[in-house]
């Protein structure tokens, strides 16, 4: 890993191997806080609190290394790059640095929760994130003579409208799905109908069945609408992050060692910790980092994750480690 880091703490006693993960990357945002430790690089900011995450893992590493003579097993400490880009998890797995790991643990700070409050549950937590793009190809013409071309903007509008029927008419109403078109482009001037139009957006789902349904209907609608207007399309569907789906056993073991755990509110945002959960049983929690109702959310230039979050986050990592290694030792 060019910008990531993996460290390992070997316990005094033999046992299984677990991993603790924190992401380390920042965002291309100009920071608008008055913090003493605000970004020194204009246009780059830890607006998602990853500095809080890796500080917590560093603290946990210090404590765990100090008690390694008590540990039954090995702890790998993963400082992961490129979470925001959506491919950091893949890069880690390609390096095989997590081979042999029996369980993986992570968390994300949540400024909407009181500082230190842990929210954790088995099963779904965060949605899968998929990038979609459609390029429509038709015949341009003068704006006064649309009959001489094939208007790609009309097709673009029809596709945007009909894609929402996937949620309202094809999807199970008890399953959360989002289809959002976030950017549309077409044309260069006021009196010319262009020959291409583009739309991009995102799809969010919580399980593979819903993902496949949305993907199938997405392709069917786009291709058939374009065909109806006598045009062709290029379609892209790219996985940004799989859904977070916490392993029931690992989550129950971790949860049993924690105090005052609340049920989380599911979120349609994504996290590439899910990449690890496709290969390794894992659990992922939210830990409160502010709690003020007016607190800026993550990815905001005014976001502040309070320092007081670090101590309970360290405790979360340490407790998870002790609970899991103890469980695996008893089961072996």
TrEMBL record:
- Binding residues annotated for Mn(2+), in chain numbering: 48, 50, 84, 108, 299
* Single Gene Ontology MF annotation: N-acetyldiaminopimelate deacetylase activity
A single GO BP term for this record reads:
diaminopimelate biosynthetic process
Which cofactor does the UniProt annotation name?
Mn(2+)
Q: Which domain of life is it from?
A: Bacteria
InterPro entries, A to Z: Amidohydrolase (IPR017439), Bact_exopeptidase_dim_dom (IPR036264), Peptidase_M20 (IPR002933), Peptidase_M20_dimer (IPR011650)
Which keywords does UniProt give here? Amino-acid biosynthesis, Carboxypeptidase, Diaminopimelate biosynthesis, Hydrolase, Lysine biosynthesis, Manganese, Metal-binding, Protease
PANTHER family of this UniProt entry? METALLOPEPTIDASE, PUTATIVE (AFU_ORTHOLOGUE AFUA_6G09600)-RELATED, PEPTIDASE M20 FAMILY MEMBER
Where, if anywhere, are coiled coils annotated? none
Details of cofactor binding? The Mn(2+) ion enhances activity.
Its name, as the record gives it, is: Metal-dependent amidase aminoacylase carboxypeptidase
Positions of the Peptidase M20 dimerisation domain: 132-229
